[in-house]
Amino acid sequence: MKSASLFSAAKYPAPQHALWNGKHYSHQRLRIGYFSADFHNHATAYLIAELFESHDRNQFEIFAFSFGPTTQDKMQTRLEKSFDHFFDLSKQGDHEIAAKARELEIDIAIDLKGYTQDSRPEIFALRPAPLQVNYLGFPGTMAAPYIDYIIGDRVVTPTAHFNMYSEKVAQLAHSYQVNDSQRQIAEQIPSRHQLGLPETGFVFCCFNNNFKITPDVFSLWMRLLSKVDSSVLWLFEGSHSVCHNLRLQAQKHAIDPERLIFAPRMELPEHLARHKQTDLFLDTFYYNAHTTASDALWAGLPVLTCLGNTFASRVAASLLKAIGLPELITHNHDEYEALALDLANHPEKISAIKHKLADNRLTQPLFNTALFRQQIESAYRQMWQRSTFSSPTKNSEARKACLLSRWRKENGRADDAWNSINIEAHLKKSGVNSLNLTALTCLASYRKLAKLFIQTKGLAATLTNPAIHPGLPNVHNTAPIQAQQLHCAHSAQPP
């Protein structure tokens, strides 16, 4: 994290004066702003499109801040329809975009880029929103004081790794990585011959970007080819020079360079369909398959991975756990090589795993976008609750008076009779257990009343005890919160 902190401070320091002045808004719906340059045909969009479409519009108002190209491709057209508000800001500067978000009173700003290509961290450095979150695009800490949360899960961000993050860690119950369950797979599956593959023999593949291939994993793959007769390695065709260089390296390992076959880019449905002609996806070590692993699993292709020590090297393991295939997660390079060899030499084993994957594809959490939506929306609500009421015992009497006044105004109750005692009595008369936050908040007609009661009675002070409030985040306790299937863990001071 130290190097990330130095990078952040040198390249994207926070200005002396933030745009957001510390005031928390009180909108009827939480305003969620997604910021990205990738609202078009791009790996991030392929993963997240359905989430934008399915957000609960009764609780959330969804904004897109697009600073990428105006392509008007199929995906961009779909995304423009999926938001309540879509702003093309590709010609705007960082300060203008940040000012726009501040003007719109965005409650939670989601950075889908981090430090990746075409990112705009300067927007977030200006602090346009009360809460700012690092999600999906950059698998690691931004180590920036203006990024409050990173969204992870128990595999990519285990509790033992919290000291690697400057952000607070919001743990989702299954995989942190959203997936689109509407992705189409072309009905026509090309033959091996059409794809340039041999008609027989085991096909290893890796469609990761070529820059993820390191000398140690490539050497291991060459050993597999030497031990599995008639096998080939099918790789993504990044460029002509990459193909040439990798084939030269294969020769140095005494492997016929023709046993490396390269797959050109093609439209997503056809790309997914061609996975049917391969046998095993071999993951890279230090920067795993992310979208490419989801592609493979969605298409029915098993993925073999080796669990690493960083967010980026643990993503495939997260996906495999969420689809019920933990047996494909190895823990060192020798184990990875041995399992790949075993599967390649025993076709009945790879067949059994493919059948299991087919059974799990629509029954396990990984591709259940509706379940994922519920979990990430729960995360957003809990982040907001924590940021708004992070110090419930401070100036408690003034706080109670302020909350009561706000509730009376919102609900047309001008009389002083509606104090916290009468609110409690009103709840009990309605048959609601006032100590059960989950029960309270699921009753729409009493939602504001319930929230106010809990805040004014000072019950928020007990939120560090999950036994009392299992549905709210626990700042200090690292045990998962089962009631909401979410864990917001503490790794920095609350905003």
Question: Could you explain how this protein is built, in words?
Answer:
There is one protein chain. The protein has 3 domains: 2-172, Rossmann fold (3-Layer(aba) Sandwich); 192-367, Rossmann fold, CATH 3.40.50.2000; 393-462, no CATH class. The protein is elongated. Helix 7 runs parallel beside helix 12 and helix 16 (420-429) packs across helix 18. The chain has 18 helices and 14 strands. The chain has helices at residues 2-11, 43-54, 74-82, 94-103, 121-125, 192-195, 215-227, 240-252, 268-274, 291-298, 315-322, 333-345, 347-360, 369-388, 396-411, 420-429, 437-441, 447-456; strands at residues 30-36, 60-66, 85-88, 108-111, 131-134, 149-153, 168-172, 203-206, 232-236, 260-263, 280-282, 303-306, 329-330, 486-489. Helices cover 38% and strands 13% of the residues. It is an alpha/beta fold and 495 residues long. The longest helix has 20 residues, at 369-388. The strands form 2 sheets. Strands 3-2-1-4-5-6-7-14 form an 8-stranded mixed beta sheet, with helices on one face. Strands 10-9-8-11-12-13 form a 6-stranded parallel beta sheet. Strand 4, helix 5 (121-125) and strand 5 form a beta-alpha-beta unit.
